[in-house]
Amino acid sequence: HDRLHSTMAEALEPYKGKVVLLYTSYVTNQLFEVHYRQVQTMLAGLKVPFIEVDGAAPDMREVRSALWAVSESRTYPQVFVDNKFVGDMGMLQELVDAGQAGDVFKGYMAE
C-alpha cells in the first residue's frame, strides 16, 4: 500500500500548486466532450490558468490513475487544485453560480 501511495505521490508531484483539468481525447461519450468544453470556458472566464491532462494518453496513465484515486471517480472531465479534487462540470458550475469559485481558485487567478 505504501509503495502504491508513493508512486501516486510521485505521479502528482509535477502538478502541485497547479490547477489541473483531467479530460480524455478518446471520445466515446459526447457528453464528456461537451462538459470538457464547458469547463475550459468556465476556467478561462475565471482567468484561471490550468494544465490539461489527457487521461487517454499512454504516458499519462499513472497520473490519471492517481487523480482518479484522489477524486474516487472515473469520469471526465475533472478539475483539481493543488492535487485536491474540486469537482466535475456540474460541481464547478454550482461553485460559479453560488459565487464561490473565486474562493476555490484564490491565488490561482491571473491578474
Structural account:
This protein is α+β, with helices and mostly antiparallel strands. It is 46% helix and 15% strand. The chain has 5 helices and 4 strands. Strands 2-1-3-4 form a 4-stranded mixed beta sheet, sandwiched between helices. Helix 1 crosses helix 3 and helix 2 runs parallel beside helix 4. The longest helix has 16 residues. The model has no long low-confidence stretch (mean pLDDT 92).
Total count of strands: 4
Radius of gyration: 14 Å
Helix amount = 40-55%
The coarse overall form would be globular
How are the SSEs ordered, and which strands pair?
Elements: H1 2-12, E1 19-23, H2 30-45, E2 51-54, H3 61-71, E3 78-81, E4 84-87, H4 89-97, H5 101-104
Parallel strand pairs: 1-2
Antiparallel strand pairs: 1-3, 3-4
